[in-house]
């Protein structure tokens, strides 16, 4: 895609064409060495939203009209207004631009809508001509009402410097050079993850406790079985000894009856 670029040779305006730079939006996990794309996070996690265009010397960029939508397209929340200023600093602050105005980043904490975990971010990227003074209002200098001081100054001085027709052409060019970018991720509640963690810990503790109780019961059962076995052995030995004693006593009684002298009073002559 190409766009019209206006340059000046002396006092004569010359219209040329230049390829439109590509633009991208990505959301990264903050406080990491490498840029890790955020896909599934929880509320309060620190994230970085980065918007960039191809590096070149013709165009700069200005991020405007950012908002966040739910995954069901039921609701949305404005984040950055048409001046490029934040709507609510507590939700998202101002973008920080690189010196060549080809990249802008802003740090924020993950947030979500109460009825869904999917959120989508959308921003409008306006391209500006660096050499034509079209990027003088970037980065925005915002007041407490969300208005860009630099944009007002640019409007006040542009009519004095430029011819009316030339200003209209340049404004039309800037209006046409805009790109919408999107990015999304999933944001989970802290309570859900904590409950899931607590449930898993509880299940693990129950399993461990059951395992410990089973081992204890097993040890007690082994001890009882060993005791019973010892008692059974003692009773068996006692029974064997008692039986041997009875046999020995019976044999002694029989010998005293038949081993003594035989007498029969019926045949006694006296």
In words, what does this structure look like?
With 270 residues, the chain is α+β, with helices and mostly antiparallel strands. The chain has two domains: 187 residues, Immunoglobulin-like (Sandwich); 55 residues. Helix content is 35%, strand content 31%. It is built from three helices and eleven strands; from the N terminus they run ββββββββββααβα. A five-stranded mixed beta sheet has the order 4-11-10-6-7. The chain has a four-stranded antiparallel beta sheet with strand order 3-5-9-8, with no helix packed on it. The chain is rod-shaped and about 135 Å long. The relative contact order is 0.13.
Topology summary:
Layout: E1 2-9, E2 12-19, E3 23-29, E4 40-42, E5 46-53, E6 59-70, E7 76-80, E8 96-97, E9 103-109, E10 118-129, H1 149-161, H2 164-176, E11 178-188, H3 190-258
Parallel strand pairs: 4-11
Antiparallel strand pairs: 1-2, 3-5, 5-9, 6-7, 6-10, 8-9, 10-11
